[in-house]
Specification:
Elements: H1 9-40, H2 48-62, H3 64-76, H4 78-87, H5 94-109, H6 117-127
Helix pairs in contact: 1-2, 2-3, 3-4
Length: about 130
């Protein structure tokens, strides 16, 4: 039995409007997450920064203008924004990114004689 459903231009219009509403809602949700991250940033611990990054990821996935601006910023400051860019990939490698960022922070903040992340990894690799 053939389908009684007929193609209509109004269906495409409805899909387009629904897609725009969904995208707008996701952008607003992303901004709400960013604001929540800013609100909890003064609390002890690194709680605000990961929340802000998650909100930024939601906004960048759903806003063409924000993505374009992010690409411009990334071209101007690639070392600062490359970790965020790596998290936006389809299959981000969280552990590798976390380890590399820990090494960077350790290199900047901790004197050479007190560093522990790299030697800890070397000890772990030997035991395997």
């Amino acid at each position: 039995m053939p389908s009684l459903r007929v193609y209509r231009a109004a269906d495409d219009l409805a899909r387009e409007i629904a897609g725009r509403i969904k995208r707008f809602g996701m952008v607003m949700l992303g901004f709400a997450i960013i604001i929540a991250g800013i609100a909890i940033a003064p609390l002890p611990g690194p709680g605000g920064i990961p929340v802000i990054v998650v909100g930024l990821m939601v906004v960048l996935k759903n806003s063409f203008k924000a993505r374009r601006q992010f690409v411009r910023l990334h071209r101007a400051h690639p070392k600062v924004l490359s970790p965020i860019r790596r998290l936006l990939r389809r299959d981000p490698e969280f552990l590798l990114l976390f380890y590399q960022q820990t090494l960077r922070v350790e290199r900047v903040m901790v004197p050479r004689r007190l560093r522990f992340v790299k030697p800890l990894r070397r000890k772990f690799r030997r035991r395997r």
